[in-house]
Amino acid sequence: MDLLELAKPRIVGLVVATAAAGFYLAAPASVEVGAFVHTLIGTTLVAAGTNALNQVAERDVDALMRRTAGRPLPTGRVSSAAAAAFAWLAGAVGIAYLAAFVNALTGVVAAVTLGSYVFLYTPLKRRTTLNTLIGAVPGALPVVGGWTAAGGSLGLQAWVLFWILFLWQLPHFLALAWIYREDYARAGLRMLSVGDPGGSNTFHQAALYALALLPVSLVPSMVGMTGPWYFFGAAFLSSWFVWVGVAAARERSTRQARRLFFTSVWYLPVLLALMVADKAA
Known about the structure:
CATH class of the largest domain: Mainly Alpha
Largest sheet: none
Strand content: under 5%
Number of strands: 0
Order of helices and strands: HHHHHHHHHHHHH
Radius of gyration: 19 Å
Structural class: mainly alpha
Distance between the termini: 43 Å
CATH topology of the largest domain: Tetracycline Repressor, domain 2
CATH architecture of the largest domain: Orthogonal Bundle
């Protein structure tokens, strides 16, 4: 169970869901079940390894934050060596599995996802508030990996999916960073909310990213990926997301941050479900 906790199952579930959506959107009329299953297995392993490597690198930081102090590494339930072995094994096997049983391009996307998260985003959290922007890159790549796994190329449609996931993450994580700003300050992490006591910069940026997401979320219908039902559904969902973001920017409170965060939590799966349901022929 402790190794499972290192993998962060809820995050793995979200990553796998986005990869599955990307696969379905790129697939022809009939989905190749074998390739789909292989994609989910490989993605699960890479996501688990990435999350575990993050906890290995941040075990000292996790020990300082109330939200994470009970994790397996800070409490000593799992040794650093055992956690690192599990993490590297899962990540490496996952990348190799995708390259061998899906295709080489998907393996490369998975490797870039793991590498950018562990070697760029994770250390930058201690150095610059730009870490959130950097971290949104590996967070947006799994949907691209799902797309390439079904034979899709790294063309316009793949990048449309990437930018939807990229922009969605920013209000999501800025709201979370505000809720836990005292924890992040205690751990010495350079989150935007830590140096923004009034919340003006944090909440205004969250609202602006939500606003930028609105037109981008409509592009799938404009480039032939989805039909009109998705277009109107995405317009409604994204407008609601903007409204919640603007309300948070006006009030700048923990209550509004929680509202923005939970809105973002349901926004993405509903948007992807609409996209899958209204996939263009």
